[in-house]
Amino acid sequence: MDAKIIFSFLFRMFFRSSLGAKHPGPSNRAKNNARPQMDGQLSSQPQWNRTGDTLYFLWNPDKKPADSLYFITLKNRAPQKATVAQRQLLSRPGSYVYNLERTRYIFEKNGDIFFSDIPSGKTKRITNTIESESNPQFSFGEKKIVYTRNSNLYSWDIATGETEQLTNIGTGSNNFGSKPASGKEEEWLRNDQLVNFDVLRERKAKNDTSDAYRKALPKEKELRYLLVREGSVRGLNISPDGRFVSYRTFKPAATKNTIIPDYVTESGYTTDIFGRNKVGAEQGSSAFYVYDRDRDTVLTLPVESIPGIRDLPDYLKDYPRAFDKRKRTVHEELLLFMAFPGRPGAGILLSKFIQMIIKTAG
After folding, report:
1. Residue 288, number of CB atoms within 10 A of its CB
2. Interval 320-349: pLDDT, tens
3. CB 139 within 8 A of CB 240
4. Which of 90, 124, 156 delimits the end of a domain?
């Protein structure tokens, strides 16, 4: 072996050991002893309250079967057990949505939407229904609060308290809204009835006159019905100005799932645990839409027109062989975009798409 390599190795080992002898670091036990300790198990899941002066956490100082909710405040660092009322007021982490000035915030709790004004310290309940409302967000220049209910968007005006339905999205069959087709026999029978019965002719004439009168009356602008023929609606969002509504539709694949036998049961009988489908089975499909409320137009995601949809990471250029092999198709890129909207680069693609939609819509 080369003498230079041996000398370099011995020098590094000596240098490392000498540093350790001159500057010994504290052991893990010493570090733990130096930290402030609390009896019982370690605390977990810390969470601040809405005003930021109380920190809640799970703790089990009495070594009971389950952890309990405790809290400390900025003025009192001694842990105290939370009451039932405090638990009910506590929302899940990350559920607060602030305005740009961070003077107001909204949140969802137990299926209802709440609005809080920080300077006044007042909290107002926006919804109080048996249905579940979720995903609150500021929109229309932060003058309204938009939330989701039954796969549709609703807005609540902060100044007037007026609630307005913004979308009318529903699912149905391909024949939604159409009358069942009648055969020649049914049509002949209907005409024969009108010929032979005067009362039927008079009744039909009155109905036709009433229908014509109703159609002639001026109508208020109706909310457009957005039909989703197959699948479910997901990811409802609205732009900050309230003009554009984006959503995804997901259609699950008709595949067979695996079954796992469960032998250890309280009943003593073997039961089935339903698992996922087989690896390589057909997956569900998604589609992305943008609804322009001003123009009453629905735009689909034009995959080929998205700038950068086929671009590969720049680091692949350092590996020519890998760069030649990595030629993603549009379908693969769209699948990644729909399945992992939070992956690196997805936000840029979506931003470019929204800019293209705004440019097209004027």
Report:
1. 19
2. 766 565 554 444 554 455 544 544 555 555
3. yes
4. 90
